[in-house]
Design goal:
By secondary structure, this protein is of the alpha/beta class. It is built from twelve helices and 13 strands.
Length: 310
């Protein structure tokens, strides 16, 4: 499976903070926002990833992340001239996807929770046609809403309904088979002039080919697209990291435990940032002795649940 991160858009809901910079480069506490969706794809074992952004911002993402070599993955970039909806990411990356299955994630989405890696990798392993992830929210009228039967099978989808049929929102993480590109090409713009991801998902639902993975009480899902949600996400990351002693969405740590980079590379990266907490954290990981007790603790790391240390 290949991965796509959609990091375009104008970021008007975060203006004036985004008047001169892409919102996905804004910090969520101690790291850029795009680290969080990229960590999700990496934890899923996806190594070929395309980042789609605006023409003026693509070069900034390249400067930040490079070609992925430092993380043991492959990163490529593509431009989205203007925001025409999430499904356009699929048509823009048609040649990149080819005949592969694809995971598409929005760059302002943050996922966290014990066992998330297990759920993610199982979803990829068992993926057939289309998979969405549902999360219980207090006010589903603000989101795309999925209704499902007692077998956890989707039976309806609605975009920001006045009277929601469930309280499960559709998160910004989607998995599709190779037909998704052709389906996206046939979609018509909605009243707001954009292609809607809900319409694409409805096509799979119509064929009874849409699976739903539910994220339960132990999970946090945040859409950091407003000033309030961005602040809340930063507070959540700060509090969790300080209380538990590990970092959320630390790309170098994930790459190291997945075996993509060496201990020496990890230490060197940390050394280049040794004057801040992030660099010190990387150096500390590289310096630890890998006792069985330590590896056992990593097996229960909320973001590294399926790592094979052998």
């Amino acid at each position: 499976m290949k991965g796509i991160i959609l990091a375009g858009g104008s970021g008007t809901r975060l203006s004036p903070s985004t008047d001169s910079i892409n919102k996905h480069l804004l910090p969520v506490f101690d790291k850029p926002m795009i680290y969080y969706p990229l960590s999700v794809l990496m934890l899923g074992g996806i190594k070929e990833i395309m980042i789609i952004s605006t023409p003026e911002d693509t070069i900034r993402f390249e400067k930040l992340l490079g070609d992925g070599t430092d993380l043991g993955i492959t990163l490529t970039y593509r431009e989205q001239a203007e925001p025409k909806g999430i499904p356009e990411a699929l048509t823009i990356s048609e040649d990149f996807i080819g005949e592969a299955k694809v995971a598409l994630i929005l760059a302002d989405n943050i996922f966290y929770g014990q066992g998330f890696t297990t759920i993610l990798r199982n979803a990829i392993k068992n993926h057939r046609h289309a998979t969405i992830f549902g999360y219980r929210v207090k006010d589903p009228r603000r989101f795309g809403v999925v209704e499902f039967d007692h077998h956890q099978k989707a039976i309806s989808l609605e975009e920001k309904p006045e009277e929601p049929k469930s309280d499960f929102a559709v998160t910004g993480l989607y998995m599709y088979d190779q037909r998704a590109v052709q389906i996206a090409k046939k979609l018509k713009p909605s009243a707001r002039g954009e292609l809607e991801i809900t319409d694409l998902n409805k096509e799979y639902l119509k064929w009874n080919q849409l699976d739903v993975e539910l994220l339960g009480r132990g999970f946090a899902w945040m859409d950091a697209g407003t000033q309030e949600s961005l602040f809340e996400a930063a507070e959540f990351v700060k509090t969790t990291q300080q209380r538990q002693g590990f970092k959320i969405a630390c790309l170098e740590e994930i790459a190291y435990y997945l075996g993509y980079i060496t201990k020496e590379s990890l230490y060197k990266k940390g050394k280049s940032m040794e004057k801040n907490d992030y660099g010190q954290y990387l150096m500390d990981i590289a310096d630890r002795k890998h006792t069985q007790q330590y590896w056992d603790s990593i097996d229960h790391h909320p973001m590294l649940g399926l790592v094979n240390h052998e």
